[in-house]
Amino acid sequence: MICDRCGEEMRFTEKDTSSGRDIREYLCPGCGYSDWEVYGTAMWQILSDDREEWEREETERDTDGMPAEDRQSLAGSAWERIRAFFRKERQ
Ligand SMILES: [Zn+2]
Asked: How far is the CA of 77 from the centre of ligand 1 (A)?
């Protein structure tokens, strides 16, 4: 961030995310002028939003998926195939 008063590169001094927004304070080393910038949503809020989204997708995937019986018969047929494979091996 460039100082409005003297045009020097300002030094980042403080970050405040307590309000849920990422507010960054800067101080000019040249003239002592301080300013702040809002960086939109704070990182912790983005992360918690992502997690909620992910959890929602996980639940949707579960209910959208096959009925429990289908899943069981699929597992059963896989097991049958494995058993058949070993039966064949023994012969
Ligand atoms: Zn300045």
From this structure: 74
